Amino acid sequence: MSPPPVIAPSSALTQPLRHAARTLCAALVFAAAPTFASAASGCLATASYIPPPPRALAMAALARQEHTAFGSQTMDAEGRLTESGYSEAEDTRHPIDALPAWQRVLRYWRAVDPSSERLPSLVRFGAPHAADRTRLTDALNQASAARLQGLGVGPGQGLDASDQRALEVALQRVAVIDTPWSAAFISWVAREAGLGADEFVFSEAHVDYAGAAWQAGIDEAAGRATPQALRACDLMRTPPRPGDLVCHARGARGAALDGFGKIGEWLAGRPTGGAPLPMHCDVVVGVDGAGFDAVGGNVLQSVTLRRLAFAPGTRLLDPSYLPEGCTAGRSACIDRHMSRQPWSLLLQWR
């Protein structure tokens, strides 16, 4: 069931409220020691009293649009796949007058680096290290029939234009599969919603914009101005709104960063572009009394909507989604399957 539409109030009403919430957030954190509890109070004030701004709603709408274009792949509140969509490298299945899946992913990458076509870059072929797509494409260009004939090679040698294009497309589709693109998806949604480079870190790594949001919270606490559009909040203590991002760390390192304080300590000491940290983030696209829907890219090789439930009687994520939330198999535990992750961060629109 689709969530009810969110209606944005007039700017005349929301601007004073938004300013008051930002002031309250800074005051709550700055007036006392900068503890996670006081920071959570500021995040809670925004979540409770400030509607999501228009660009947040635009991000939610764009994420829903891409979910539909990818065939509406969906996971239920227990983390089970209930509807299968189109995979990232598909070429033939797509809505009429819409780009096929692999071309949509290429478009996401353009949001990360609009001035270059180097991304996605990885082409894996069984060797210890992946090849670089742009270098392989350059090698193809060297083997074109037109170039070879210009060097004195006889007719019929080298790649004609159609063969060359077919191999270039094949390399692009392989790179789409081999290069993780979930952060590129978030970057595209943010850029299309109107965010600028001073407001959001467009990156192939979630950790870069998550770190910027963490720093924005530190700046607010210190009374410093920040242009960043998002701040980092504790997901387990802050209700999400449409357009916010819900995030978790992944992999062996991510398993150790399974809480807001732990991942925040790591983010605070990392510069943008610093040490890698595998992460994943989804865009919240709808909220109701029982939970929220979130859309993410490169989830089961598609753009996938997942349902996440609130704990009974609250507007907070149910702890059963966390790895240690409950013991699977017990009668009181709901197994969340593929949605059981170390969820920790809410990147909240300021």
From TrEMBL:
> Signal sequence span per UniProt?
1-39
Is Signal among this UniProt entry's keywords? yes
Show where the DUF2272 domain sits.
124-348
Q: Does the keyword Signal apply?
A: yes
**UniProt KW keywords:** Signal
What's the protein called, per UniProt?
A: DUF2272 domain-containing protein
What's the source species for this entry? Variovorax boronicumulans
Q: What is the lineage of its organism?
A: Bacteria, Pseudomonadati, Pseudomonadota, Betaproteobacteria, Burkholderiales
